[in-house]
Amino acid sequence: MMPTDPAERSAIAAEYVIGSLPADERAAFEQALAREFTLQQDVYYWQDKLLPLTRMLDPVEPSLQVWKRIERSITSASPAAAQGWWQGLRFWRFGAVAASLLAVALALKLIAPATAPEAVRYVAVLQSPEKKDAGWIVEASAGGKLRLTPLGSTTVAPQKVLQFWTKAQGASGPTSLGLVPPDRVTEIDVARLPTLEREQLFELTLEPEGGSTIGRPTGPILYVGRTVAMNIR
Which of 19, 182, 203, 212 could be joined to 154 by an S-S link, Cβ 3.0–4.6 Å? Predict the structure, then answer.
């Protein structure tokens, strides 16, 4: 069961992104991730902050002696201090990685141009309206590509197709982004979108072969979600 404390949930999301969660905790986290929007936001946040930095670091496995010293220091802590989650092994395990990443981040900040432009990346998790299962991920940034990635395989009946739609807040109606295959990544030029902004709706509907002929969805919505905006450098 996932904890309710926001700080602890964020720390677990960071571990998930780094890849240091034990197998059983990772499985439980992924189940919660599929249905909890706030966890998805935490994961996106840490992906943007940590993953670009990890590619610059050589992996180092701490020795068994280091882990034993950490465990002994936790065990010997006072009962009152040990009650906080930050005294647990998770904090030290995550903290060691985060400290290395922070050092790289500071170095990059020192050598990066002070006027580096800030970009915005938009991400949406498309979920089943009924089951709330996460089925697809939408990622896009202005001037680039929109990437639609399946998290599994969507079953499409014979003579039916998946059609991809978007609708910005305040728009009079949805815009078709075309037919997409049910089992592989689709890339679309962002220039094809009427706009790209926060809380923009994306959805996949089941349509007759060839797609909708009336400029709006006619079949059931299989997956739907709205974009979250994240500032990146």
Answer: 182
Alpha-carbon span 50 to 65, nearest angstrom: 27
Gap between the Cα atoms of 14 and 47, Å rounded = 8
Domain ranges, ordered by start, for the chain: 6-111, 119-232
Q: How far apart are CA 229 and CA 129, in angstroms?
A: 22
Question: Which among 124, 123, 125 is positioned nearest to 35, based on CA atoms?
Answer: 125
DSSP assignment of 163-185 equals: EEEEE-TT-SS-EEEEEE-SSS-
- CA torsion, points 186, 14, 102, 98, in degrees to nearest 10? -140
The CA-atom distances, in angstroms, between 212 and each of 149, 174, 203, 209 are 22, 12, 14, 8
The CATH code of the domain at 119-232 is 2.60.40
Q: pLDDT band at residue 70, thresholds of 50, 70 and 90?
A: low
* The residue count for the chain: 233
Side chain identity, residue 32 = A
Q: How many CB atoms lie within 10 A of CB 14?
A: 23
Phi and psi for 144 in degrees, rounded to 5? -115, -140
Two structure tokens written together for 193: 């979108």
- 121-172 confidence digits (pLDDT tens): 898 889 888 777 788 999 998 888 999 999 888 889 999 999 999 998 888 8
Strands (E), 78-159: 119-127, 134-141, 145-150
Neighbours of 167 (CB within 10 A): 18
